[in-house]
Amino acid sequence: MRSVLRFLGGVGTVTGSKFLLDQAEGGRILLDCGLFQGQRELRRRNWAQFPFAADSVSSVILSHAHLDHCGYLPALVRQGFTGPVHTTPRTADLVAIVLRDSAHLMADEAANANANGWSKHVPALPLYDEKDVARALDLIVTTEQGVADVDGARLRMHRAGHILGSSWVELTLAGGTRLVHTGDLGRAAHPLLRPPEPFEGADVLLVESTYGNRRHDDATTMRDLADAITRTIDRGGSVLIPAFAVDRTEVILYRLRELRQAGLVPPVPVYVDSPMGLAARDVYLEAIAAGADELRPGLTADTLDPSWVRELRTAEESETVNHPAEPSIVISASGMASGGRVLHHLARFLPDPRMSVLIVGFAALGTRARALVDGAPSVKIHGRYVPVRAEIVDLPGFSVHADADEMIAWLSTAVRPPSVTYVVHGEPAAARTLRDRIDAELGWHAVVPKQDEHVLLGEEQ
Fold this sequence. Notes:
By secondary structure, this protein is an alpha/beta fold.
């Protein structure tokens, strides 16, 4: 009998990461438990029954707290999964924030659909609710980046440098096969986090490819950010930045602080309109106070909580920046404009040519952020089409995913090359490009797997 690896998500797309490991000697382990986002046909997959009995899954390992890696967990629990869920302590803290917010948004979306007749299902229901989230959170078992036994395999979680608490996962199976799953790999240039721990090698490797066909240019990104803010303010407009609540909001605050200190942008009011983003920032502030070793040295509370930031926590406070009395900068979630408070701001900002909307990072196919980047003349928000007259600025360099060169550099540290490398978590062109580079530059056997495909693991790999 051989161990089997099944690709249940994060294949052909950057969302829905789920990789199921059926061990020959041991339990059934799910590597990440992500929600599909973006295109409608992808989102529909969230509603399909999990392809195996949920209670047959022995354990889940979460690489980090982004929704596309942890957001399906309450749905799995609703179907009968009883745990445990292994992750790092700070990922656990952030997962609690992310999943509670996800359940809240799902409830709001269902209520809006019922009130306005948007759904084919009557009544429209959320995929999961707060009770499912509470049950899921109760299953989490934390481990620092070290060694733990998981269903017959030895687990080690290594610093990934993507967001706080993020790890790349190493599993050594009972038969000796060593499997590594990168999750989302961070950047050496991340302003808040230390770089990913080096990769020493594996028998089987799952490598993400979000930016497998792109390169980041940090100097150009910062210049473009400063220029976009300055010209918007000069014409009397305000800047809206849709930003992921976890890590991206913190990175944007850090970069704005740099630009203000250097006198490169006007000192206009900066609003953070994201209760989830503020809660996530508090986790970062706690890590700074504790001197967490995954953070870069020298960070202080003022790095992420400067005096000039104005926090908007209530819905009434949020409404005040839809018609700003003076030019300002508004940071609001969600990052891909798929839900949350940012939708109300987009509905107000997009029709006004004085305004700017800055897309700071990767925008998946099928999201409003991607439509804006691709030049859509209008986008649909809350059942109505909104014209796009505001300036749209694409700043992909703010992503905290390793780019293609950084990924190749990280892989190159391997003392023992994998027998096979599966290129996952990327749109098709990005995955193919990274696969070809791994083959040409490293001489490794690399494969882009298909959705629902399964492969055998073992000595013959």
